[in-house]
Design brief:
Elements: E1 15-19, H1 27-36, E2 41-45, H2 48-51, H3 61-73, E3 77-82, H4 94-111, E4 115-118, H5 120-123, H6 130-134, H7 146-155, E5 159-163, H8 169-179, E6 182-186, H9 187-191, H10 196-203, E7 207-212, H11 218-222, E8 230-233, H12 241-255
Parallel strand pairs: 1-2, 1-8, 2-3, 3-4, 4-5, 5-6, 6-7, 7-8
Helix pairs in contact: 3-4, 4-7, 8-10
Length: 256
């Protein structure tokens, strides 16, 4: 069964997904656990050990093509896919960052995802160049080939979203507007900058993913219910199945 992944029309319900990395570093195992818990949606967190071929640094496209039948058999749909982490940002060539993002887009497309979530280190070429950009003195310091990445993602009918991380709500608004991208909102970081309802008001429908841990208050989530496309639940891999099941059921009942 293929689920509707469109989110252009504003709705008062959010999709509720589970992060695969919270269940297992083995994505296939994580999908089996998610289905057993009664999940409908997942966010697939790309793992370096699976993303690259065993005998080279080449992208292992076949792995993700072969996951698609498993997703369909388990009646799971992928809302978002996250980029693989850059272990050493300073030593990662800009061309490598571009190729990584392009390969992430290909993996996400193979999985039928709606959103590709990236970190600032994958997207921007130089952290020191961000301040002049925010001051309005320079263009966005994106990696070379950013336009190619954006086109590839858009052509696959997906959205590119940046995690807010250390960025304030006003800076995220500028980035998403200037680059024509979306926001993946980490509630922990967001709440330390501004009330969550401010994030919801400022970013509106550009807020396509929100991340929740067990420590996030219900009020935070409620303030996003009319805006965010999907709430992704994060937790510990050693959490019991019952703990996950209760949390998923309660969250879905309240907001799904």
């Amino acid at each position: 069964m293929i689920h509707d992944r469109q989110f252009e029309t504003k709705t008062k319900t959010m999709r509720i997904a589970i992060s695969t990395n919270s269940l297992s570093a083995d994505t296939s195992v994580a999908l089996q656990r998610a289905a057993a818990l009664g999940a409908t949606w997942v966010e697939i967190n790309l793992q370096s050990a699976e993303f690259y071929s065993a005998d080279s640094d080449e992208h292992n496209a076949r792995f993700y093509r072969e996951l698609r039948p498993q997703l369909e058999a388990l009646n799971l749909a992928v809302w978002s896919v996250t980029t693989t982490p850059l272990l050493d940002v300073q030593q990662t060539p800009l061309q490598t960052r571009k190729e990584t993002l392009l390969n992430v887009a290909r993996a996400a497309g193979a999985l039928g995802a709606a959103v590709v979530v990236t970190e600032s280190s994958n997207l921007f070429s130089n952290a020191a160049a961000m301040e002049p950009y925010f001051a309005g003195e320079t263009a966005p310091p994106v990696i070379d080939g950013y336009d190619d990445v954006w086109v590839q993602i858009t052509n696959r009918r997906m959205k590119l979203a940046l995690r807010n991380g250390e960025f304030s709500v006003q800076r995220m608004a500028k980035i998403t507007r200037d680059l024509a991208i979306h926001c993946a909102l980490d509630l922990h970081y967001a709440g330390s900058d501004a009330p969550i309802d401010v994030w919801a008001d400022v970013l509106g429908e550009r807020l396509v993913v929100a991340y929740s841990t067990e420590n996030d208050t219900a009020g935070h989530v409620a303030e996003l219910a009319d805006v965010a496309g999907c709430l992704v639940l994060h937790g510990a891999r050693d959490d019991s199945a019952e703990t996950w099941r209760v949390r998923l059921e309660q969250t879905t009942k309240a907001y799904g």
